[in-house]
Specification:
By secondary structure, the protein is α+β, with helices and mostly antiparallel strands. The chain contains ten helices and eleven strands. About 50% of the residues lie in helices and about 15% in strands.
């Protein structure tokens, strides 16, 4: 199983479930009838947070449906709050309906980015869209590796390249290393290369890990953890994530983790 932010997104960042009457209600004030103000967003969120947690744990699919419904409701009644858009962002990541996901992502990219929190949601949505549109197209990636090496995918045509988004703190990522190393050792001389995108925040720990585990390929590192720039740019929301680039420089697989060696051999032979 991948290390993901699924339940962090659905149970922590989000947390609205069920119907809530947001319309203004009539109230008496010193003998006069007037409209009362709608409750504060924080108050509403607190009351319903426990309910959505329970609903999502009980039935994730129905929970996601409710998450979208309430996210849209809240975005209409509280358009300046970032949380409703975080809910919709979570729905876009979790729903099995690709058309719905695409629609939501496009809606999010069209939001006003003047609020920094909403701006982060917008950038994430843009990354997700870029990820969807990247398959079958040239992949642009250029950086200085943690050991000083210059990496530029555009200069690596003729090679089959694995882009490995990972972290030393990610158990499933670490468990994949022996398999990745085996494929590298067997096929490197035939033109197989690996580029690591580390989502660590401790440079010394990363360097020590690389040395101990004898991982000779270049690693990108900016110390931002989940907010690692190249991961954000390419819509990475869970790791390990392994992408495969063919000899022409095109991204041909966004799930290279499955059957890696066979896939590399296939693209080396083309």
């Amino acid at each position: 199983m991948k290390i993901t932010k699924k339940f962090r997104l659905l149970l922590t960042i989000t947390g609205i479930f069920g119907v809530f009457p947001f319309n203004s209600t009539l109230a008496k004030d010193e003998g006069n009838t007037k409209l009362s103000e709608k409750p504060a967003f924080e108050e509403v969120y607190k009351k319903l947070d426990a309910q959505v947690r329970a609903a999502l744990k009980e039935d994730q699919d129905k929970g996601i449906i409710e998450l979208e419904r309430v996210g849209r409701l809240l975005s209409k009644d509280y358009p300046k709050e970032f949380m409703p858009y975080a809910m919709l962002s979570a729905v876009a990541q979790m729903t099995p309906d690709s058309e719905k996901s695409l629609k939501i992502l496009k809606e999010l990219t069209a939001l006003d980015d003047s609020d920094p929190k909403i701006a982060r949601i917008i950038e994430k949505a843009k990354g997700q869209l870029k990820k969807r549109e990247a398959l079958g197209k040239p992949l642009d990636m250029k950086f200085t590796a943690v050991d000083g090496r210059e990496v530029d995918l555009s200069q690596m045509k003729g090679k089959v390249i694995l882009i490995d988004f990972w972290a030393t703190w990610c158990g499933p990522c670490v468990r994949e290393i022996p398999s990745v190393k085996k494929t590298y050792d067997e096929l490197h001389k035939q033109g197989f290369e690996i580029i690591g995108i580390s989502m660590d925040s401790d440079k010394k720990k990363l360097e020590s890990f690389l040395a101990k585990n004898e991982m000779p390929w270049p690693q990108f590192f900016d110390g931002k953890g989940w907010k690692t720039s190249l991961a954000q740019e390419h819509g990475i929301s869970s790791i390990p994530a392994m992408w495969l680039v063919d000899k022409k420089g095109n991204l041909v697989d966004q799930n290279a983790r499955s059957g890696l060696e066979e896939k590399v051999k296939k693209y080396l032979s083309l």
